[in-house]
Design a protein that fits this description.
Blueprint: H1 2-11, H2 13-17, H3 23-33, H4 45-102, H5 106-133, H6 137-165
Helix pairs in contact: 4-6, 5-6
Length: 174
C-alpha cells in the first residue's frame, strides 16, 4: 500500500504542487488528533515541585526546632541535676571542715590543706562558670569529681588527725 501511494504521488506531483492547504486545515487536523484537554491545576509539574519544596522546608524547620527543644530540655535537666548534687556535696564539705576545726592540731596542717583547697576551689569556680554558659554531662562529671577530690582530701586530713589524737598505748612489759 505504501508503494501505491508513493507511486501515485510521484506520477501526479505536478498536479498536487499547485494546491496549498489552508492554515485552518492544519489546526483542524491537530485538534482532531489530540482532542483539547482541560489541564487541571493539579496536573501541573510546577505545582508539584513547589509543593515538594514547601513540604521539605516545613519538615526541615520542624525537625531543627524539635532538636533545639530537646537540647534545651537536656541542658536544663543537667543543670537541675547538678544543682541537687552541688547542695549535697557542699553540705558534706562544710561538715568535714567543721570536724577539722574541732581538732586543736589543725593549725599544723593548715597551709598544706589551704593550698590544695584553693587550687581545687579555683578549678571549681572555672568549671561552674563554664557549666552556666554551656551545660554538659562532661562538665557536670568534672564538677562532681572536684567535689569528691575535696571530700577525699578532707577525709585524709581527718584520719591523720584522729590517729594523732589517739594516745599511743604501748603494751607494758612485765
Amino acid at each position: 500500500m505504501k508503494d501505491k501511494l508513493k507511486d501515485f504521488i510521484d506520477q501526479n506531483r505536478s498536479q498536487l504542487d499547485h494546491r496549498q492547504p489552508s492554515d485552518g486545515l492544519w489546526i483542524k487536523i491537530e485538534a482532531a488528533l489530540w482532542p483539547a484537554q482541560s489541564r487541571s491545576l493539579w496536573h501541573s509539574v510546577n505545582i508539584w515541585r513547589a509543593a515538594a519544596i514547601f513540604l521539605f522546608g516545613v519538615s526541615s524547620f520542624l525537625f531543627i526546632d524539635r532538636m533545639n527543644l530537646e537540647a534545651d530540655a537536656s541542658q536544663t535537666g543537667i543543670q537541675n541535676e547538678y544543682a541537687d548534687l552541688e547542695v549535697f556535696y557542699k553540705d558534706q564539705i562544710s561538715q568535714k571542715r567543721a570536724l577539722l576545726a574541732s581538732f586543736d592540731e589543725t593549725h599544723r596542717f593548715e597551709n598544706e590543706l589551704t593550698d590544695d583547697f584553693v587550687k581545687l576551689e579555683a578549678m571549681h569556680q572555672v568549671l561552674t562558670e563554664q557549666m552556666q554558659r554551656e551545660p554538659s554531662e562532661k562538665l557536670r562529671d568534672a564538677l562532681i569529681l572536684n567535689f569528691l577530690v575535696r571530700i577525699n582530701l578532707l577525709n585524709q586530713q581527718l584520719n591523720q588527725l584522729e590517729l594523732m589524737s589517739k594516745p599511743n598505748k604501748e603494751p607494758t612489759s612485765i
